[in-house]
Structure formats: structure tokens, C-alpha cells
Amino acid sequence: MATSRTFPLISAEELHARIEAGDSIRLLDVRYRLEQPDGRPDHLAGHIPGAVYVDMDTELATHGDPSEGRHPVPSRDVLQDAARRWGLDSGDAVVVYDDYRSVSAARAWWLLTRSGVDDVRVLDGGLAAWTAAGLPLETGDVVPARGSIDLDELSGGIATIDDAEAWPARGILIDVRAPERYRGETEPYDPIAGHIPGAVNLPAGAYLAGEGFADPEAIRGALAGAGVTDATPVAAYCGSGLTAAHLALAGTVAGVAVTVFPGSWSQWSNTPGRAVATGPTPAGNVDA
């Protein structure tokens, strides 16, 4: 594919032009929300022509003990089997989208790029950008011929729970959840409220412009406001690892490497013995 507006993003207009030009592009519809985890009904009601539905809970995550978090990363075999169901072959160009801030699309982007897929882009602005441009949708299911892609073991840019605990001593650990969750005033999903001691809060809205991503300079400015410099190792976590991958995508747009702690707060808060900080500052009030 040609270089998009800002790698690894692609605009709706460019995507449509590439499709019209006959480029072979695998389209993945990763609609998912916490309040509506099954996006298939919406997919069937209307999706970008040719897009295959991707199930977040069964294909982009696995499930086990609560101490693994709410969205543990799938094994190579699980992800590879899913990617083959989506029709992916080695060397394919892939475009991923969703209908909410590209959060779930970023999870697919992160997993695939970390598994050795070179050409993966996210539709900037998601489905809303496509429909706002007056571009067509189709209904029904899309069942492609099974692909033959071989994925690598997931590697690089991934932090364990122990890495996350030690990260503030060597760099910036960013918590991208809402401020009230970071401060420990509320916790709607996990058993304990608060944040990892030493983590800095940077909610996702700080590096977005509407449904799409802000420009690279604005993203770098938001990261700088969280204390990130050119020499700073950066890691991110959220509730269950999805929005942390979203920040990794934003970081790539801005030329800043962001390591993802996929277990995130859901793993931390379900693991006995992990200290919890509350309040508006990174150190906060720590309960060990």
C-alpha cells in the first residue's frame, strides 16, 4: 500500500481510493465495547464492503484466571487460526477499523504487528469517518477463503506485571484510564480502585481529535506533558490492555515507542501483594 496520511493510519478517502484501484486489502471489522462486547449484530447490519468480523473476546484475547487480567493476549496458535479465518495470507495488506476511537482496532493492530505482520494500518476515525465521507456499506456476513498466514510468536514491546512495577524507576509508566479511576475514586470493572505506584495519568482523549488521532506534534505534546522526553522509556497500561495498545498506536504515529502492559489494571488488581496508590499524584497514598 502507498504511504498513508500518517503511518500506521489510513484515511477513509485513501482507503476507498485504494480499493477502487483494485488493491488487494484485507479489511477487519473489530467492533467491541465494554457495554456491548458482541459487535457481530452491528457488523451484519452494515460494514465496509468486504470487511470480516473479528471477535475481540475469542480471537484477540484468551481467558483464564482473574490474575491474568480481563483480556490476556492469545497464544500464537489461537491468533494464527483466527487470522487464517479472516483470510490472511503472508504479505497481505491489512486495514483494521472499529466504531469507537479505534481502541479495539488498535488491539488488533498491536497483536498483528507484534506477530510479524508488516503492513497493518488502522482506519483513522473508524467507521464514522467512512460514513461521513459518504462511502458505502454492505450488510450480511463475509466469509473469506481460509488464509495460510504464518505468525511469529508475540514479541517486543510487551511488559510483564513485574516490568510494570519496576518501570517508574527507569522511565514513564502511563495510566490511560479516566482520571477518576486513576485517583481511585471509582472502579466499575476491577476489584480494587487506584493506580500502580509511580504511574502518570494521561487519559486517551489527550491524544485524540474527535474519533481520530491528533496530529503527531499534538501527540508528542501530550506525551511531553506526562514527562516523556526523547530519552524516556515509555510503557502504558489501562483497564484490560486495550487502550494501552491504543496509546502504543498513537506513539507510533508520533514516532515514540510505547511498551504495553497487556495485563493492565485488571491483572494488577487481581494479583495479591501488589501495592496500590490512590490520589491525583503518581506516588499517591500507597496501600501495600
Automatic annotation (TrEMBL):
Residues 269-288 are annotated as: Disordered. One of its GO terms (molecular function) is thiosulfate-cyanide sulfurtransferase activity. CDD domains: TST_Repeat_1 (cd01448), TST_Repeat_2 (cd01449). Gene3D superfamilies: Rhodanese-like domain (3.40.250.10). SMART domains: RHOD (SM00450). InterPro entries: Rhodanese-like_dom, Rhodanese-like_dom_sf, TST/MPST-like. Signal peptide: none annotated. It holds the Pfam family Rhodanese. Keywords: Repeat, Transferase. Residues 21-139, 172-277 form the Rhodanese domain. PANTHER family: SULFURTRANSFERASE (PTHR11364:SF27), THIOSULFATE SULFERTANSFERASE (PTHR11364). This is Sulfurtransferase. It comes from Microbacterium rhizomatis. The lineage of its organism: Bacteria, Bacillati, Actinomycetota, Actinomycetes, Micrococcales.
